[in-house]
């Protein structure tokens, strides 16, 4: 990490937005992952609800997609972006009593979209939480991380665990 | 869990907002916790930056506070609320190479504020992530959970691990 | 209409927000209706998609609920409100080749909620439009109107055609 | 309609955002129309108010313009766009006791702007409704439709009735 | 100022939101003032435009009203509020070549509304600026201040110069 | 000013958004200035707080940056933009008992960014006001103006007083 500092902190230690004017416009993609752990009976309720009408997972998916578009309003130093694609998938993993969330964002632009993908995944998880909290107070959201990233000068990145 | 179903899913399996018209106005408080794991050298950069000007932690704190106010815009079935207090604290835990976030929301109203606290904690974590991502791609956000809750008919709750 | 003028226009003809400080806090409910006409084969696609996963109608429903919460941001002279309940239902009417939307909003407050119900219904319709526009350019949204209203000093109202 | 399905529904029946990464950047224009029917005496009030200060129509116009900029926040699967132009006009039609609204949006981009034009027209109508509802409960909004569209691979489109 | 510190800074020097849970619900009113100076010929254009259709001043007025509703989104430590009334007036003062703006906000609540009034006045001024900037680059906005305030434990306040 | 009129007012005197479709994409920069006057003891509190943790000035800075991104939501006829850089600095001027704010916005686009810089400066000032208002009711915000502008067909501009 020699020679690199926190890009959002200037020489006086103050928060700052990175100037992306001079960055190249390239196709950028980021994939974020996250998981929501709940009781087995809660997960079964979600899955059965899903089997019938798909609404718990469907609602979380839409909330994640909509949140990605508002990332720059939530994260103070993020740039406003014109995402060309957002996708959020939710996969129940019964043996681990959890739901895995994966969010993908895409942009032809000057800055990476990992914060957009991470925000989409986080809000999808929070929405799941909201929909089951009345029957399960012990829900935990975690493992929110960058899974894959491409575009920009730093090249392709795949998380070790992915 | 006998006799209880997912409150946000109606008898036809469709997503719905809970009607809180008949709920009592009581003083409601919720505390949410979350953690952000990063490399030791990243954490040191944050702490040193903090020692000087406090900006990484200060920015995350403000982002969390501001996000709590927008919870109902992000989580589809949450009610708009007039929070009377929001607090977010961030505590570096050097031996575990992580930062612990705690968010507290307070309201005199008809509905609980755990989603507001969880949203504040989540967005504070995402902001931390954003500010260190240039030097550390392996940051992970997790352990987002309800720590404590009071007010409303379900009484006082403290998470087992708290 | 003797003795009554446009409440949003003051004596100088300028737009103004109605002052609701002195109005009574009562339980207020408003129901708005709207319809979306499309080709029979488009409607069949929506219904079949619905039968499987419910997403076209489910997405429109959520969009309507979320829009109700933002009415005061869209309609310049509307007051910010803390709605206690929002519901949006969508009913395909195959023989008329249309989908009927009904939105209900509820509030214990000083001002009526018909604009919130009308906004929810309108945005649900726009979302339906968005999801079928690639296969049907002739979709028409209409019949957006107040169906029922109660609470406040003007008493209960039911639209003649309801 | 052979070979075409609902673009917002994927093969599993779930809602999805269309990926526009590969679409061409072209000049895109969309014109939407809508109408608001009211009692003759309500319309006269609006027109007379207009003659003096223009505020009912002026307020609706601005609300429509501002709403177009927020379309992607309201319609879940719409992309955020940088509209280069938005125009909304309102034309009282006394013989039919209605006001005709027309909204035009323009963009150099990868996706059509009909949802932006339709949203602008709808919110202009809702604002008209809001401003006259105290004197006329029977107002109806309708005939919200695409009038004209150009740009993109599907070429120029003019609605039959336009 | 003995015994009083900055209420938004806690004992550790960090920004914080004031907890208003224990404050009394009273009728609160705040009036803010502001002025926009421009060239005499610019002011004349505004006034003449106003004489015809009222749009420069009308647009600024609406922008101010709408901005008041979003104060808590803009000012990090402001509480979300349900304003019961917002009014913005604009008065051209030809002899001083300026426009005076006055914004009034009203609330039955636990916290003062001066930030809402100041935000309304500021955004009305910025909107005036936007509408004349093409013909006058030397416009200056100033004298943004609290004019009058009542409600809450600090009693009635009138600015010395008011 | 011969041959030039208010660009936001059309031939009928109605408000309108300027169509920027045909404008060239150039690198555009705008710098806005503003000042906040307060009592000497208030300023000292801010500076001392700053010396310790930087939160009053840090909070105002972030609020300014975040507000710039929302300019098009606040100013009715502004275009949505993808700013590539926003910076806000705050400089206490003890001898004049004021804080000077300077906001810089940057964009590769079709329209100038002075409104974004002016909005950032204004909201930073309002945030300063909010944080000291409990100890100083006589705070005044002023001297909000364009300091410098480049890009676009009108060339480089520097305010006389800058």
UniProtKB/TrEMBL annotation, chains A, B, C, D, E, F:
InterPro entries: MoaC, MoaC_bact/euk, MoaC_sf, MoCo_biosynth_MoaA/MoaC, Mopterin_CF_biosynth-C_dom
EC code: 4.6.1.17
Enzyme active site: 130
Pathway(s) annotated for this protein in UniProt: Cofactor biosynthesis; molybdopterin biosynthesis
Top-level taxon in the UniProt lineage: Bacteria
Class of the enzyme per the UniProt entry, highest EC level: lyase
Keyword Lyase in record: yes
Molybdopterin cofactor biosynthesis C (MoaC) domain location: 17-152
Keywords tagged on the record: Lyase, Molybdenum cofactor biosynthesis
Gene3D superfamilies, per the entry: Molybdopterin cofactor biosynthesis C (MoaC) domain
Keyword Lyase: yes
Function: Catalyzes the conversion of (8S)-3',8-cyclo-7,8-dihydroguanosine 5'-triphosphate to cyclic pyranopterin monophosphate (cPMP).
Assembly mode: Homohexamer; trimer of dimers.
Family: Belongs to the MoaC family.
Name of the protein described by the UniProt record: Cyclic pyranopterin monophosphate synthase
Species this chain originates from: Kaustia mangrovi
């Amino acid at each position: 990490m020699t020679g690199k500092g926190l890009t959002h902190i200037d020489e006086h230690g103050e928060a700052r937005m990175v100037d992306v004017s001079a960055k190249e416009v390239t196709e950028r993609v980021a994939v974020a992952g996250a998981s929501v752990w709940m009781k087995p009976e809660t997960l079964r309720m979600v899955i059965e609800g899903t089997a019938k009408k798909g609404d718990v997972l469907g609602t979380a998916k839409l909330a994640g997609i909509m949140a990605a578009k508002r990332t720059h309003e939530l994260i103070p130093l993020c740039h406003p972006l014109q995402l060309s694609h957002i996708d959020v998938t939710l996969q129940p993993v019964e043996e681990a009593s959890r739901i895995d969330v994966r969010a993908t964002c895409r942009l032809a632009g000057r800055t990476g979209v990992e914060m957009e993908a991470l925000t989409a995944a986080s809000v999808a998880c929070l929405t799941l939480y909201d929909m089951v909290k009345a029957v399960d107070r012990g829900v935990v959201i975690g493992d929110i991380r960058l899974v894959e990233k491409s575009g920009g000068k730093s090249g392709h990145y795949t998380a070790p665990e992915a």
